[in-house]
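Dear support,

Our group has been running a series of protein-ligand predictions, and this particular one with heme C is the one our PI (initials K.S.) wants archived with full inputs and outputs. We had some confusion internally about which version of the output was final, so please treat the block below as the authoritative record. The input we submitted was:
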Amino acid sequence: MQRIKTALSCMFVVPCLFLATALPLRAQEQAGSQPASSTASPPLNYEFFKAKVEPVFLNKRPGHARCVTCHTVNHAPLHLVPLSPGSTTWNEEQSRQNFQLVQRVVVPGSLESPLLTHPLAVAAGGDQAHGGGKHFESKDNPEWLTLKAWVFGATQ
Ligand code: HEC
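Confirmed final output from the archive:
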């Protein structure tokens, strides 16, 4: 009797396991094959990110620590790859990783993206608080505009 039970449960468990692993893969493939066509917002551009957004993370603003200083070591949703010893910027591989990591705090095409609301002054429409301070006083700040342009799909 025990044997039959084991055999039966295998018959059910094995296909279930198969489905459990196969389904997420299918979803990923589909997402990969049509990144933007199903939504209205344009895809985030890697070249723009590397050329213009990463420098914002590295830049020192008066009265504030640099984004990179905190966000390579803390456990906030925004996580950046630590700079290699002696490096002042990220290499290609690290930049590609950053590009993926930063997407946790970005909703493409949305002003509600935490990347935009968190470092922006409350009075200018930012959210209530940021452990790292409000780096941008207004929505006219050129660096904030750079972040916004990227979130909205800018390519150059
Ligand atoms: C002094 C350290 C420090 C600096 C500098 C700093 N941050 Fe932060 N940041 C934090 C901490 C701590 C948190 C988590 C607590 C919170 O949400 O405030 C955080 C959270 C965030 C989040 C995640 C919000 C969420 O919950 O989704 C974003 C996005 C962010 N920071 C962006 C930035 C940007 C962009 C810069 C540079 C312009 C920056 N931070 C500079 C400390 C810092």
